[in-house]
Amino acid sequence: MPQTRTKLFAGPRLRQLRQRETLTQANLADMLDISPSYLNQLERNHRPVPHRLLQKLCERFGLTPAWFSNTKEAHTVQAMRETMADPVFKNASLPLAKMADAVHTNPDLCAAFLTLYRAYKFEQECESNTLFPSPPLEPYETVGDWVQHHHNYFHELDCAAEKFYENLDLKNGLAAALKSHLLNQHGLHTQQDPALEEGGLVWRIDRHRRTIFLPPDQPPESTLFYLAQIIGQRDHTRLISSILRREGPKEKNAQELGRVYLGNYFAGALLLPYTRFLHAAQTMRYDIERLRRHFSTSFEQISHRLSTLQRPGMEGIPFYFLKLDIAGNILKSFSANRFSQARFGGPCPLWNIFRAFATPGQVQVQLSQTTDDSIYLNVARTVGHEGVTYTDRPRQIAIVLGCTISDAAKTVYADGLNLSDHRLVVPIGPGCRACVRDNCSHRSLPVSGRMLDTGSDARGVVPYRALPEKP
Fold it and tell me: Residues 95, 210: one domain?
């Protein structure tokens, strides 16, 4: 199963780099020894970036090829593919090649089409359940797309968190340093309050008593994260507001969700400062267990931080990160590589994240191949807290962190695997509705948007097969 090589259309990233360096097209073209008209074609995605030019860009600006990766385009193609699988488009069959071409040539129109489809799906849900209509998901999806556009990395906020960490007095530990800062700079004491858990709260500030209340039984790494959240809220509100005002979502609910996300991002970046964390991750070969002990944080916190290491010139491995519950509901999804998960319907049951629920607390490693022939190394494990009492019903959650096979050898999780032997690679899809694999015995429903062959002369592993796409 060979890995497909795709042309690199990196117009938006090339334009972003030029603007960041305050260069005109003529200036950059001169540096690269190409014509301004050719550069203009590259920036407009009319031409792919050739390998020799990619190398020159990386050497000139201290970047890695991953920085120019067309991840947004790959995710849009996957979204288009899944959307066009809806039966409503059964008379408008569109081959994958034409979808990819549409995303190349007119990404804004494709984005508008996807927005319209999401609105259509929401109206359908409301009509089917008029008494209790489902809330719209647009704000959450808007924030997810915004974060994805930034490759899950926010430079100003990350640098601010790193600078804050370096100025702390850590002689008594990080927790003591954070509490001391909150007391000295904001006059806030910390105190435990058992009643918080009953109210479903993880922390609360009483402004009159100048006190931060925290639950007594939470893990130390959770306490650290919540203190860092509060510091971000108190010390960097202006920076967060500036980022949202300048480039964030415009709709009110989406903007508020964006504020929450940036607050969490700051907290993670404070506990795991970029330069120190990247060096430790590379030295320890991205061993999450070693990293969590070294930084006294959780498996989930380490995994999420690994998916954000996209600082220009100091990139780590581009990971995708996904978190879901035992019912298959996706709670978080970010990707710094080409991996893209279905927006509608459940994930593929062959994915090792589901096996993680059968072995709580143990790491599951898997090599998988997606329908675009890309091969990934996936690391999955359950996370979350155990019940405090018999009557507790703790939420069962698992996460999966994945990188391309080309980066797998840099991690400890590839040890013992034959990365050149693809016979045991597990084929996974974006969910049955959009998956084109007809020979999968795990298929739960036929692929949508294609004519079915029920097999009058032969019967397959499932009682229906989709006829081939028309070219």
Answer: no
Number of domains in the chain: 4
- Give the global pTM: 0.73
- Do 176 and 252 lie in a common domain? yes
Helix residue ranges per DSSP H, 359-404: none
How does DSSP classify residue 48?
A: P
The verdict on residue 305 lying in a domain is no
Q: Using an 8 Å Cβ cutoff, are 361 and 425 in contact?
A: no
Rounded Cα distance, 336 and 69, in Å: 9
Residue 395: how many CB atoms within 10 A of its CB?
10
Calpha distance 206→189 (Å, rounded): 10
277 belongs to a structural domain? no
Pair (59, 163) in one structural domain: no
**205 part of a folded domain:** yes
Q: How far is CA 174 from CA 161, 231, 270, 275, in A?
A: 14, 13, 10, 17
Q: Contact 273/267 with Cβ under 8 angstroms?
A: no
- Which tens digits make up the pLDDT trace of 53-75? 988 888 888 777 777 766 777 77
- Measured CA to CA, the distance from residue 384 to residue 369 in angstroms comes to 28
- Examine the domain organization and report whether 121 and 161 are in the same domain: no
**Residue that has been written with the tokens 């007809």 in this structure:** 438
Q: Which residues contact 139 (CB under 8 A, 6 or more apart)?
A: 249, 251, 253, 254, 257
Per-residue pLDDT, 457 = 67
Which pLDDT score is estimated for 436? 74
Residue finishing a domain among 120, 135, 150? 135
Token pair of 313, please? Answer: 């010139």
Q: Residues 86, 118, 76, CA angle at the centre, nearest 5°? A: 75
The residues facing 213 across adjacent strands are 191, 204
Residue 149's pLDDT is what?
A: 82
Domain containing residue 30: CATH number: 1.10.260.40
SS3 content of the chain, % helix, strand, coil (to 5): 45, 10, 45
Q: Are 296 and 220 in contact (CB under 8 A)?
A: yes
Higher pLDDT pick, 370 / 9: 370
**Residue 319 forms part of a structural domain:** no
* Domain final residue, candidates 219, 242, 271: 271
Domain with 248, as residue range(s), is: 140-271
- In angstroms, rounded to a whole number, what is the distance separating the alpha carbons of residues 224 and 218? 10
Write out the two tokens for 256: 């508020």
Helices (H), 9-133: 11-20, 25-32, 36-43, 51-61, 71-84, 96-105, 107-128
pLDDT, residue 225, reads: 96
Residues 127 and 20 in one domain: no
The token pair at 111 is: 């984005």
Residues 172 and 217 in one domain: yes
